[in-house]
Write a structure and sequence with these properties.
One of its GO terms (molecular function) is DNA binding. The chain is mainly alpha-helical and 94 residues long. The protein has helices at residues 27-40, 45-51, 58-69, 80-93. Helix 2 crosses helix 3. The radius of gyration is 20 Å and the shape is elongated. The model is unreliable at 4-15 (pLDDT under 50).
Length: 94
């Protein structure tokens, strides 16, 4: 049996320092992601995660940006007019 070096001995063969972080995002992580994207844009989401110094997957960064951090994200409830439009379209289109 071949033993792995101590740095690779954890579960799954990943080096402990490079494991992706899971769970809630901290305000510091949000700030790093926001700053990276607003200053440099997005080439690939995995590169954004790496260049921002985040231990998150590219997919996690993309979802965080699209659903919470985008400057053009509307956070208010829908207006009465929007609600009426939705109801009207649902009635006509099903």
């Amino acid at each position: 049996m071949v033993e792995k070096p101590a740095s690779q001995a954890d579960v799954g063969g990943e080096v402990e320092a490079h494991k992706e972080r899971k769970g809630l995002w901290s305000p510091e992580e949000d700030e790093r992601l926001y700053t990276r994207i607003t200053r440099h844009g997005v080439s690939t989401w995995s590169s954004v995660a790496q260049l921002a110094g985040l231990r998150r997957s590219g997919k996690s960064c993309r979802l965080r940006w699209m659903n919470y951090l985008r400057p053009d994200l509307k956070k208010e409830p829908i207006s009465k007019r929007e609600e009426e439009t939705i109801i009207s379209l649902q009635k006509s289109l099903g």
